[in-house]
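Researcher: Good morning. I'm working through a list of sequences from a screen, and I'd like to move beyond sequence-only analysis. For each chain I'm collecting a predicted structure so we can compare shapes side by side. This is the next one on the list. No need for commentary yet; just the structure.
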Amino acid sequence: MERVTLRITGLVIGVFFRESTTETATNLGLVGYVRNTPEGEVEIVAEGPRGSLLELREWAQKGPRRARVDSVRETWQTATREFHEFTIRYR
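Model: Good morning. Structure tokens for this chain:
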């Protein structure tokens, strides 16, 4: 199991990015969280099989219909297994 952290910039706040990410990640069998950052980005931290994480990254490069993604930065690590589901964080 692996862990990826994605930081997404662009028009990503107020376009249902967090909700759509939660649905996509859950459908892929991933655990972790998504949140808006104080810098106006969306941060996704997800754990699961590499193939599913790559699918989530591919989805995040486009985002939901109303989003405009300018960039996706990614960091890969070994999974910590600290998550039991995929959630939205508000801080």
